[in-house]
Amino acid sequence: MSHPTSSARPQLLHPRNRHQGHYDFKRLTRVSPALKPYLLRTPAGDTSIDFADPRAVRTLNQALLKADYGVAHWEIPESYLCPPVPGRADYIHGLADLLASDCGGEPPRGPSVRVFDLGTGANAIYPLIGHAEYGWRFTGSDIDPTALRIADAIVRGNGLTDAIELRAQTLRGHLFHGAMRREERFDVTLCNPPFHSSATEASRSGRIKRANLAAHSDGPPRASRKLPLNFGGRDGELWCQGGEARFVRKMIRESVDFADQVLWFSSLVSKSAHLPGLRSELRRAGAGEVREVPMAQGNKQSRFLAWTFHASDARRAWWADKAGDRTPPTPAHGDA
Secretion signal: which residues (predicted)? Predict the structure, then answer.
């Protein structure tokens, strides 16, 4: 998990991110009473939850999604990844700025904007937030049929089948091939790749993270409770052979085959040490422009890497074509 260990969050989030400052637990418990039993009083006298308790964090996520994004139904099994909502929202807002840079400086809104979520997972968090904030239409792919069934229940439970399509990855070992169709065009792709290179590495990292959460949490003293086994996350979510660097390199290589169908490709990159190698891979692939966008993921710094095979004039023409009148679209101004 990348949630902070108190009710305050670093002031490093995107300006349009709804989760600035402190969590308003009074508002959240009004919307989602199930959160109330998990509230506690910190030594400083503030209200918080025990961020080392995965049940509390999952219930907080449910409250945030309901209160801020209108997601009334969000249930995932404990074995699946429970994502930090503020950090996931930051990626969406960063992508909105990326698209805005090609179409008049304002984030484009509405269902004509199409986004491909590579590895959407059981939580479907990016489509839920992206549609709520900008009205975008999403296609989410995953290789795990159980995760897709869980995500489908979330999508259907919230009446979002027109906005979010879920698709099985049919070609094991591939990312875009087998999931993206030749007749489709997407304005941007996103991905939260598996960070670790093995189950052992993922388990070791999880133990360290749990110990840190327990040591710094506002919950009961460490000695008085049993630490959770994990915060969820299965093999494909947490680790893959070669880890994050190999996964994103593969994504870059496959993106060449879809260069004319996608305006911008992107992926989270958790480790800055991977960036030089990924930039070299992008040069070999012939990417025309590459951007590294810094962002906050809870208490840690992260970033996403974006690349395109379209020159700037071609990107402007892309949006003009979508508008249908050869002029960039005029985005609607909403309360984002």
Answer: none
Q: Write down all domains in the chain, each with its CATH number in brackets.
A: 79-198+232-323 (3.40.50.150)
Say what the pTM is: 0.83
Contacts (Cβ under 8 Å, ≥6 apart) of 323: 329
Structure-token match 């969820």, residue found: 232
Q: Which DSSP string corresponds to 183-236? A: T--EEEEEE----BSSHHHHHHHHHHHHHHHHHH-SSS-GGGSPPPS-S---HH
Q: Express each pLDDT in 72-102 by its tens digit.
A: 999 999 889 899 999 999 999 999 999 999 9
Q: How far is residue 328 CA from its own chain's centroid?
A: 27
Asked if 302 and 270 touch (Cβ cutoff 8 Å), the reply is yes
CA angle (167, 260, 320) in 5-degree steps = 100
| Token pair recorded at residue 216 | 């710094």
